[in-house]
Amino acid sequence: MADFKEIKRSEHLPTRIATEIGREITDGRIQPGQKLPTEHLLAQTFGVSRSVVREAIAHLRNEGLVETRQGVGAFATEIATRQSIRIEPGHLGNRKTFRNLFQVRLALETEAAGLAARHYKPEDLAKLDEILAQMTGAEKWGETGIIADLAFHKAVAAATHNDYFLQFIGFITERIHVAINAARATAILEEIVEITIAEHVAVRDAIATRDPVAAKAAMRYHLEGAAGRLALNLEM
Q1: I want to staple 144 with a disulfide (CB 3.0 to 4.6 A). Which of 10, 113, 139, 197 is the partner?
Q2: Is 213 exposed, middle or buried (0-12, 13-18, 19+ CB in 10 A)?
Q3: Do 197 and 140 meet the contact criterion of CB atoms below 8 Å apart?
Q4: Separation CA 6–CA 46 (nearest Å)
Q5: What is the CATH number of the domain that holds 126?
Q6: Are 118 and 225 contained in the same domain?
């Protein structure tokens, strides 16, 4: 079995675990086609819950390093079928790289909001409402609020009913988790959380009206605000 180590609690657990497993795959210690250890065993090894492991596997699936087979488990993908897009978490410490990723995010998510307004189904809107309830709940100041923030953006992508939007936006949102932590660290927490929640509510409400123009404007306003809170100039 690969030489995994227990993860420190201060780190974003799913991302850190995905990085560890991904390194084992890309370095060849987990061979193409090889089955990964079970969720239960990985949870024990890393010292985390199975839900955290499940999210980490989802990260790897988005990156094309892992495929899951219903009722069987997760497997390292064959090299010939692996996707080429991959961003190591450490690379986002480079401000230019991070800004470039945010520019891509702005383009994709703005368009996704417009498509979601056109194509969402009642269950999609219900999902957005469920996530907003989590964002505004008692744990909105901590990790639960951050996870809900990311889930909201993936739910908007899912509401487009275009799997490619969900795939690419899902990939990007997992990478910008560090951005949300950075924004919270450099601002008055209560102020930034309330602003962020209000922006998400505006996106949800615009989508609910089935007005693509309003939905795109609300998402653009939110993302430009998020970039501003990180002191990112998206026009450069």
Answers
A1: 139
A2: exposed
A3: yes
A4: 4
A5: 1.20.120.530
A6: yes
